[in-house]
User: Fold these one by one.
Assistant:
Number 1:
Amino acid sequence: MKRGIILLATAFALMLISGCATTTSTRDQGFVAEFRTGTQGLYLTFEQNMPPIKMYDDQPLEVVVRMENRGAYTLGGAGDKLYLSGFDPTILTGISTFGEQIPELEGKTQYNEGMLDVVSFTSTIRDLRGKGIDKYPTRLVATACYGYETVASANVCIDPDPFSLSVRQKPCTPVNVGLGSGQGAPISVSNVELEASRGRTRFRITINNVGGGDVFKPGAEYLTKCSPYAATGLSYNEYDYVRLNDVSVAGQSITSSCKPSSDIRLISGKATIYCELNNIPSGTAFATPIAVRLNYGYRNWISRDLTILASR
């Protein structure tokens, strides 16, 4: 009888241990789940048959654009707009040149895959016969202008005295670090190169426009200029720029050491930032995170061909 009780108690204890281990593993996996992946921000598609390929001028036109936030930054700020253009406003009437507000769309987290919603445009089609035409072919263009952010991080090795022979086996060695294809944003930090010397580590950070759209300076003024209806569009000194918000190593901001330290110009979709971590206390090498935060405006678009026929 005692043996049976002991066996039962042992089995129960093992079940508890197993259950605890499973719970801990699940919790840990959820905590470390990587969600800052991919090279897209806002992804646009036209809903099926909205608009159709062909229609008649006695029908109302409704254009519905599906919007998915496939990145890791929340969309829907005051200046984030979707515009519909590419048509003759004397034929398709009722579509505002001020655009439609992009709804709030939470980005990817360790708990979800990002949010989606739709934005619609409704137009009245003028009588084509009255204008002396039988059909009107056009290409509708949906253009999204929005602010976005890239947050990239990776572990790097900091060695206060990389040429010292006093320590034969160091915990780590300063080496270049690749950050993969993207961090859940259309602007990607692709690589961090290290150059270590006594008391100082230099960083060469490479960023790329990988989203397939246009990047420009962040801010309400530039979002307005992004519109296809803007009287004055984005200028050469506003287009192809990313703003460096922060670079930190071991919890210490080194942004003031970076060159450029604010607005960064991309050439052929690519730019390099040079930063330094100085006055590193003497001691052994150690691994620590480097974090890079970038802000910018972004524009991407889709198009759909449409032919409108005279109904009579």
Note: Confidence is low (pLDDT under 50) at residues 1-32.
Number 2:
Amino acid sequence: METNVFKTYLKENFPQTYEELVEKFNLYSLLLARESKIHNLTALEPSEYDGKHFLDSLMLNEVFTFANQTLIDVGTGAGFPGLVLAIAFKDLKVTLLEPTRKRCDFLKLVVDELSLSNVTIINERAEDYVKKARETFDVATSRAVASLPIILELSVGLVKVGGSIIVMKGKQYETELKSAKKALELLKIKETKKDIHYLESDGSMRVNAVFTKISETSAKYPRAYGQIKKNPL
């Protein structure tokens, strides 16, 4: 069922590249299943990848128009949503930011096997990488990385003024949004769009929210991760 829903979504939204995308995602799935046995990259079973990894990531297409932009996926893990978006949108220039070496090795394997020319992999923490890439990206994405105040602080310095931060959250989103009120003010960002949907596989709630960066980020953000975690904005 999940596979059919995912393939249907691909056919409806990417008809010109449908066959190519199916082939690439099938290979991605095989590599993830094989390497996860060794490196514990995902807790999901291979039968769940289409619905809970690939389609879940592509649902950002419902809340944001991806075109010829620069995107950074903060804490990408095994490539969700950043690598999925790079596969689907060839003209999107994607940087996958991941602090764990084994995950970066896996990402490089997938990028090489799928012959993706629009992906850069960075093995660093966001609060360190921002020192060399401040306000250089059009959009930042993240999925299940940290609470909203924390992920916004980690992401905002990487995005240009007028750029977007897209967060993928679950049923606790509204509670997290209330707790992020101070962060939104200090970081000079605002929520501009939100999409709520439910996974076909298990009915779980998903919230994809877009935040727009209103003005330049103070050089003091992001703080060191220890400070961010101990005292969220």
Note: The chain has one domain: 66-230.
